[in-house]
Amino acid sequence: MEERFFKIGEVAEILEIEQHTLRYLENSLKLKIKRNERGDRLYTDSDLDTLRLVLQLKDKGLNTTAIKLALENTEESEETSLAPKSGAATQDLVEMVSLTRQIVEQNTELMQQNRRLEQRMEKLEQKIEQRNLDKEKKIDEFLTLWKADQEAKKSWLSRLRGK
């Protein structure tokens, strides 16, 4: 049976997405799409299946990094098993998607914790800056009083000398 190839416009129509989205997915996920001698993309049925899976994962809220990891793990599991059972492969994929989702959720939580820590650090830096300003103000007040005291002593001493 001869393998059928689809051009980018056909795939975009089949998947109901824009051509630029297909090019973006190819680049960001490092998909190996066959090309003809002119450089036109030639998508196989397998490529369509992969893209459908990618779009499903995106719809479930996974980012491209998580999807790329899931695809790499899928490729590894396909390479290591000679004849994977369809149900087992689906179960593995579901498990990978679940794990990937957990990783994404943990990453999101870590990002939120990082933002909170940055906010706390900013508040502490503001407090330190305010304390430094208060110290400088007190030093200035002390110097002003000290200078006034020194002037008063000079004045008193000069009065004594003047008599």
Describe the structure.
Helix 4 runs antiparallel to helix 5 (about 85-160). A two-stranded antiparallel sheet has the order 1-2. By secondary structure, it is mostly helical. It is rod-shaped, with a radius of gyration of 35 Å. The chain has a single domain (about 10-130), classed as Multidrug-efflux Transporter Regulator, Chain: A, Domain 2, CATH 1.10.1660.10. A hairpin with a 5-residue loop joins strand 1 (about 35) and strand 2. It has helices at about 10-15, 20-30, 45-60, 65-80, 85-160; strands at about 35, 40.
- Tell me the series of helices and strands, N- to C-terminal: HHEEHHH
Coarse morphology: rod-shaped
Overall pLDDT: 84
Total tally of structural domains: 1
Query: How far is the N terminus from the C terminus?
Result: 125 Å
**Category by helix and strand content:** mainly alpha
| Low-confidence parts | none
Strand content: under 5%
Question: Helicity level, as a percent range?
Answer: over 70%
Return the CATH topology: Multidrug-efflux Transporter Regulator, Chain: A, Domain 2
